[in-house]
Each structure stands twice: as C-alpha cells, then as structure tokens.
Amino acid sequence: MVAAEVRAGAGQPEGTSPAKGKVLLVAGTHGNELNAPWLFDAWQRDPSRRPACDLELVLAIGNPAARAAGRRYLERDLNRSFDPDRLADAGSRELEVDRARQLLADHGPAGADPCLVAFDLHSTTASMGNSLVVYGQRPADLALAAGLQGRLGLPIYLHEADAVQTGYLVERWPCGLVIEVGPVPQGVVQPAILQQTRLALEAALAVLMEARAGQLQLPRQLVLHHHLCSLDLPRHGDGAPRGVIHPRRQGRDWQPLHPGDPLFLSEAGETLAYDPPAGLGLDPVWPVFINEAA
Amino acid sequence: MVAAEVRAGAGQPEGTSPAKGKVLLVAGTHGNELNAPWLFDAWQRDPSRRPACDLELVLAIGNPAARAAGRRYLERDLNRSFDPDRLADAGSRELEVDRARQLLADHGPAGADPCLVAFDLHSTTASMGNSLVVYGQRPADLALAAGLQGRLGLPIYLHEADAVQTGYLVERWPCGLVIEVGPVPQGVVQPAILQQTRLALEAALAVLMEARAGQLQLPRQLVLHHHLCSLDLPRHGDGAPRGVIHPRRQGRDWQPLHPGDPLFLSEAGETLAYDPPAGLGLDPVWPVFINEAA
Q1: Strand partners, A231
Q2: Do β-strands A22-27 and A262-266 pair in parallel, antiparallel, or remain unpaired?
Q3: Pairing with B140, which of A124, A242, A274, B39 sits 20 to 30 Å away (CA)?
Q4: Are B244 and A190 a contacting pair at CB < 8 A?
Q5: CATH number assigned to the domain comprising residue B218
Q6: Has residue A140 been placed in a domain?
Q7: How many domains does chain A have?
Q8: How far does the CA of residue B162 sit from the closest CA of chain A (Å)?
C-alpha cells in the first residue's frame, strides 16, 4: 500500500469522550495472527495480568474457528465481512459473515452486552512496527489516534475510499481502530510483538480514561498517512509475479519512496524503479504493509 | 529442536558418485513456503536462468494443491508421508499420501522418469540461515553434505531416530537432502531467501558434478549437529502454552545453549532457564528450528 503524509491540526474535536460504555478488545480476527490471542489467554487465566484500567473491558476472539485451523480465515476474511449490506443479506451465510453478525449481536453498540469502542489487535509480516490503522475520518477515531500518537509516537495509516477493500470490523462500532504490529511471521508468537501489542493497548486505554475524565490533552498536530492506492507486484500476462520486493525496500515500511527509487527486483535480477501510477503526483509517498503475506 | 555438535572425519566414503542419473529438485513440499517455487516458475519461463549444470534436472512442485490453497498441507504433512508402510497401505488415501506415491511413480529411483538424487527445498520462520538437513547416516548423503559444507560452510542438522517424526521425502531416493533457508514468514517471498536457496542449490549441483567426474575433494572434517530431542514450550495442564521463546534466544539458531541460559519467558514475565531433559548430559547443546511456525 502507498500512503501520503498529511499533517492536520488535531485540536479538541467534538466526540472525544467515547468511553462512557464498555470497551471491546478483539484478538484473532485473523486466525493465524497469534500474538494478541496469546495475551488474551494469559489474561483469562490470571485477570490480574490485564492492563490496569478502570474501564469495563470485554475480550473476544474474532475468528475462533480460523484460529483453531491456524488459518487467516475459513470462508472469507472476517475483517472484510462487516459491510452493512452484506450483514443484512440473508443469503450471505459464510462462516465469517455469521461470526460478524454474532459479534455485533453480542457486543455491538446495540448488542446484548453493548460496547462503544472497539480495538482490533492485529499482527503483520510487514515491518509496520507498532502502528495504528483508522478507517475513514470519524472525529472520535482521530482523537483517539491523536492521543495515542501523542503518547507513543505511533504512525497512523488512514484507510478510506478504497472500493475493493471494505467491511472492516471497527467501522461497526462508534469508535474504534486497529493496532497493527510487525514484523512477525504468521503462526509465530514473539515476546517483542506481545510487548508492543500490550504497550499500544495500555496507551489506548489510558487515552480513553483521560477522555472520560475530561482530561484528554491532544497534541497540536496529528500526522496521518493517507491511503492512496495498492501497488501490486509486476506480473506476467498470465498473472504470475515477475518480480519481488527489492532488497533495498524490504522492511522499510513508513520510509519515503521517490520516483526512481528501487522498488522491485525482476526474475532476471534487474532493479525496477518506482514509477508513480498515473495521476499520482505526490512525491514522496510512504509505502506500508510491504510484503504482507496476506 | 536441540542438537549436539559432532565432528567426524569425512574422508572419501564409498558411494560418492551418486550423480550418474537425473537429479530431482522439489519445491513447495509445504504449500506455504513460496521461495523455491518462485524460482522454479522463473526458470520454467526462461530456462536460461536455471543454475548452469550439465546434469539432467527434473523440477517438481511437491504439493501443488497445498500451494494453491496457501497452506502447509491439506490432509497431512507431505514431508511425513513417505514411510514405506504407509505408502504400501491401500487404506491410506490422504491427498498427500497419494501425492507421495505419484512423485515416486514419476521420479522415484524405480519410477517412469527415474532420479537418483533428490533435493527438497524448504524455507522456515526460524533463523536457520542457509542450512542442510540430512536424515540418517547414508554415506552418499553425508558425502554430499560434506562437499557443500566444504564449499559454503553450511551447518548440517542430522535428523534420525526420532520415532514420532518419520517419512521424509528425500529418504525414498538413494541420495538426497533438504536445503532449509530462513527466517522468512510463511507466504512471503524475499530476495535474500531466493538468493540463498539458489546459492545452496548451485553448490549442491557443483558437488554432484565433481563427484560424477571423480574429482570431488571432501573436507577433512565434517561438522554435524545431531538431533537429540524436541523441546516444547512450557505448558499449562490443559496444554495451553505458559511461555514463549525468550527474547535472548529468539533468532539464535545454531548458537550454543548451556544449562541455566534464558530459554523461555513466562506469561508472568519470568525468565525460564534451560534445564536439560533427564538423561541429556551434553553441554552445550545447539538449538535449531527455534520458533518455527509449523
């Protein structure tokens, strides 16, 4: 994915007190991302290890069936299954669409045990570090992200207006964001990833507590990386890749990319330079989710 | 896995000319290990990119169905499906057992298009670097591995006598070994992994060519790491892990481990030291395949 850096005054937007209700924490939305579920299991066995927090927390494993199978999903990506139209379509009976309905019936804002904020805890094979993803420009999400950036300096990827990628979980809660930590292989638990996940979550809960107490001090400026487009590998006519991420770009998420910079390495060993897609006049852009397995 | 380091005189054992027939190269024995299949695809499109070699090479994708699904395997691990008893059991109809039979019927030593040597190209999430695995102590395998170690210095993991892990592909060919490269996440192609895989394979073919020409000079000494046992994570009574690989051990494959060294980190954040299993008097031992996802 390629993003533009945007600096916006954050100020104190309305809607910065979203934490009057319970907070939903979701781990294992993708069944082969094991680090956040590992934390949940540990906290379940010994609740004293949970992040110290006077908010009411609800913990849920997003896709338990996919987790049991060690796969990202079984029938369709749960984190692309929360489109209102799809959820309302009685003909959509994929396991993950039913699971999305269940999560909303249980813990949605109008559910049996309602939550008003949702954190969805992911990991990635890309070198995203400890980072946030927000979907669209809802003021409460941006305020929460700004508070987190003010505390930990986390980079923020603003994903919106991509017609082929929709239906994210957190969009169905009044306020919510994704915490994305990497690099870590699918199927692997690593202490550094556990620690970063916990750190981001603790900071997020601290921001919510400050907001509820009316004491949230937001930074004067919010730096967002705004989704521009997805860049695919170069491909042959039959769709097979004809190159891989260049060694000088592998692992360099959140670092600027200029036209002419090495981006791919072809099968023949040639360096393929970054050539901006038509209409993309920005220079530099900031690649994220580089070489994510999914 | 934990291994002991063994230094043995290699000399010129009998059976160092195994390359009179064709050489089978297998990639994608595990469907989510994408780097070697990527090379095969590139070589298929442009055979001039194949390693320069006057041996007859036969290229095969081990488990095409699992590769298409992006999974290690569908019904059972193909690389544990080559036990003669299982292959002979008409009741064993798992997809991978049938695939093993097919590979042998096609390219086994008594197959339609027979090969006498097999290289099985794997990748791993563990920091194995560029390394070799041999199964048992067949002289031809050890000579081949010694030749490779003499050229590239590759470490060698000798796997044998583990009753719960049997049925490896290369065991069914008169000579063969596994090339194991990492770390790389499952489902990810990286140029460094491609390059290492190609380098090890080119050296292996060069060793075979020397052997065929009667010119193979083996190093005076062969350093093997001999399989001792598998060490599991510490677990709760219900089987759930109660710790992860310690940050000071993560990524340190092939490095000595002494009793008392940090090995795991518990849920509570305590360091759990390495305590040798009963009867394992060796000090140090050498862990390999640390935190491999599979």
Answers
A1: none
A2: unpaired
A3: B39
A4: yes
A5: 3.40.630.10
A6: yes
A7: 2
A8: 24
